[in-house]
């Protein structure tokens, strides 16, 4: 049930806490924010999750679930003002389209402010995806605190903060101000901190400023994984950094395992314990046909069982489809190819899965680590390069498919080698698996009652209950 208004000593009635969450529209980013909404509402605190009409369809499942569990969670559909901004349209470059999407969301500032002002009580706080820096103006205008939710690892957020602070001009190869050594090639540096895309410059600066201006940051991680980086980030920002994750373990994990009856799971049921390598590159990264062939041959040559997710958009060419069918025929019994979307959490929690080849999106890495599955890393873009450094170099639970970041000469031999290294025996591979199991235990410990993420959420909610803002 929702918390009743709080009686203070002076008998002033403070409004009950209420959080307004503003996710970045788009699959990979909305999911953790939706999980966070459930987490907060699960404590009986009122949550409004803001969305656009297009995105609302994706959240229908969540809305039903919340209603079923009687959570004080509502989905608020904001009208999306029509475009009249002179922005270029119809670019074929995927990164351009992504930027245009991010920029188009700035138009939600007016509708969000109107929504907040329409409420009988001022909300306690806005929680904004850090890629929505336009919420800074809304929070200031209505006079309520604002926390940012940063999607990637805390390690990445700290690297990015330090690089921005100490200046990008040096363009050195060592990330400054880190408690561990982080060294990138020049190309990787440019791809990781987006300096290779000048069109993004202004937006990237606004995101950074939005994080610096916030009253604190929320990260989807846990102290047992990133404690030193959470501490350093907190010191760097001079604001609280709340490690509350892994978000998905609280709600979707059990659900995914309980309901999934798909053919994929039936196939996994036939395989031996920890023998299958799962291969999936997230919701955005796209393989060229050439890369697709190398991945396929590499998996085939490794001789190990594999479960490989290929996107519809990667199979538009008839040649690619034919090639995949031929591969399927040759590897029947060894491999399974899933076309489109796979139930990733159910797959990673299956006992047959012993490794995960990933593009190092933070959600994927967290899902893997929280299930005790070590990874093969093949980053494509942005924060993924630093997430790779974290899991390979710092945490010791990953094998890079190529020595850091250089995927120019990616060939099947590298893939086959990485699969053998990860899935094989030997002391190094065993140690990797042991560490990963330990992080799995810690992840579950963190979200259990009394665990660090659970306690952090309690502290965070309390900080808004007792110093809640009064009406003007
Ligand atoms: N995902 C999934 N099935 C797929 C591909 C992706 O369920 O076939 C989910 C995955 O579990 C993760 C998210 O989509 O939660 C991808 O997020 P991530 O941060 O790893 O990468 P992004 O898609 O943002 O690049």
Q: How many strands?
A: 15
- Secondary structure: helix percent: 40-55%
Radius of gyration (CA) equals 23 Å
Provide the low-confidence segments as ranges. Answer: 85-92, 467-472
Q: Tell me the number of helical segments per DSSP (H or I, 4 or more residues long).
A: 21
GO molecular function: UDP-glucosyltransferase activity
Domain Glycosyltransferase N-terminal: 20-247
Keywords: Glycosyltransferase, Transferase
Family: Belongs to the UDP-glycosyltransferase family.
Word description of this protein:
With 472 residues, the protein is an alpha/beta fold. The chain is 47% helix and 13% strand. The chain contains 21 helices and 15 strands. It has a 7-stranded parallel sheet, sandwiched between helices. A 6-stranded parallel sheet has the order 12-11-10-13-14-15, with helices on both faces. A two-stranded antiparallel ribbon has the order 1-2. A hairpin with a 5-residue loop joins strand 1 and strand 2 (13-14). Helix 14 (289-302) packs parallel to helix 15 (318-330). It is globular, with a radius of gyration of 23 Å. Mean pLDDT is 89; it is low at 85-92 and 467-472. It binds uridine-5'-diphosphate. Uridine-5'-diphosphate binds at residues 28, 31, 280, 282-285, 309, 341-342, 344-345, 361-364, 367.
